[in-house]
Amino acid sequence: RAKKEGRGTYRFFEVAMSEEVRERRMIEHDLRLAIEKGEMAIAYQPQTRIGTQEITGFEALLRWNHPVRGDMSPAVFIPIAEESGIILRIGEWVLREACREASSWDRPLKIAVNVSALQVNNPTFVTLVQAILDESGLAPERLELEITESVLIRDPERALQTLTQLKAIGVSIAMDDFGTGYSSLSNLRNFPFDKIKIDRSFVRAIDVNIQAAAIVRAVLGLGRGLGLPVIAEGVETNGELAFLNAEGCREAQGYLFGQPAPIEMFRSVTHAEAVA
Ligand code: C2E
Ligand code: MG
Ligand code: MG
Ligand code: MG
């Protein structure tokens, strides 16, 4: 009997697996068409200077409105886009759209764009970034590329060369999701980062959770010691904000200041005069 149940479980597992594979294939297929079908959009989330509460820039976050499934989280489709290589085309689209959008603003705010390891490690990446800056007319100083440490893993020497070239054309580099994944302190010393983004998982409940508080305090100390500004991700409450402010964090991003939204929602920030 036990044996029979065991087999049943095994079969069920097999079916579930192939369904997951099928599901991924479908998403992959739909992803290939999503841009031309106009299903992709960019949501912009403000980055705010703690203290003055002024908006210093926006992070561009990709949104996909699937014709059947509706809004799909980037946490679901970005990994599939990365595995299938489709991220190269999608990532180029995001970069071009975000730079064109930012170049139309009256105020010289920063625009932060997430880029995947596959993009950064593509030999033509620096040329592509330069071309997009040229065609959009965006000042390179206004563009910040957000990369995670996964970019540095496969070929650290080439990654260093690429990041150095990006810095040379005037673009800045932020280390995203700091403290998660492959984090290594030596990455902060060996690569030319301009900013550290503390991952949301540490910011959550810093005002009530002593472990989270200790980690955030340490990252802020690290930033100070290395001369690197630190931005806190995922700030949702005034308690979290008060803690960050008291500990010397100067910049924050999170639902407390604004959810990612279509850029029109921020017209009074991006433009000098709102039009009626
Ligand atoms: P990320 O770059 O770390 O972006 C921050 C994520 O935290 C975003 O999720 C944002 O909506 C969310 N967030 C911001 N503030 C809060 C908050 O106060 N509370 C909570 N609960 N969440 C908050 P989103 O938009 O779902 O994106 C998830 C991830 O997908 C991003 O993490 C990034 O790794 C990736 N991603 C998004 N757009 C792109 C893109 O254009 N290219 C690439 N390569 N990756 C992207
Ligand atoms: Mg990011
Ligand atoms: Mg992040
Ligand atoms: Mg992330």
UniProtKB/TrEMBL annotation:
This is PAS domain S-box-containing protein/diguanylate cyclase (GGDEF)-like protein. Residues 24-274 form the EAL domain. The chain holds residues 513 to 788 of 788 of the full protein.
